[in-house]
Design a protein that fits this description.
138 residues; alpha+beta; 2 domains; 6 helices; 4 strands; 12% strand; elongated
Length: 138
């Protein structure tokens, strides 16, 4: 939301200064930044305990992430549609998830941290992670 508000303010000043084209371009750039840093760019987050429960049942990896993380964003987009088959936990919204990440990373909240079969992997290659997703049932 801060990106949108700042973009609107900057665009308004450019528009008033007589540069409507620049104003529109700036507003679009700020809207794009807002979208990229938004939790909406990611599959719906669930709590860490629920993700652990679901992962125990279906074997899918758990991705611990946070909004604004460029590495999380890169992982999300490079996974493409496969990202919907993972369990996503936003560590800024879930204290238990943040604790899991700190435990896995010697006190640091380094994301993305991916749990595969109970083992942490920090910032894994999307190709590798895609291979860790169990096939869907027919």
């Amino acid at each position: 939301m801060a990106f949108v508000v700042c973009g609107a303010l900057v665009a308004t000043t450019r528009f008033v200064d007589g540069s409507p084209g620049v104003a529109v371009a700036l507003l679009l750039a700020f809207a794009l930044l807002a979208g990229l840093h938004s939790p909406l760019a990611f599959p719906r987050s669930i709590g860490a305990l629920e993700a652990q429960r679901r992962s125990a049942i279906d074997g899918r990896p758990i991705v611990y992430w946070r909004a604004g993380c460029k590495y999380c964003l890169r992982l999300r987009f490079r996974l493409g549609r496969s990202s919907r088959r993972l369990h996503w936990v936003d560590i800024w919204r879930d204290p238990t998830g943040a604790e899991v990440v700190r435990t896995a990373n010697k006190g640091d909240e380094t994301v993305p941290t991916v749990m595969v079969a109970g083992r942490p992997h920090v910032n894994p290659a999307p190709e590798w992670l895609r291979g860790q997703i169990p096939p869907t049932a027919s």
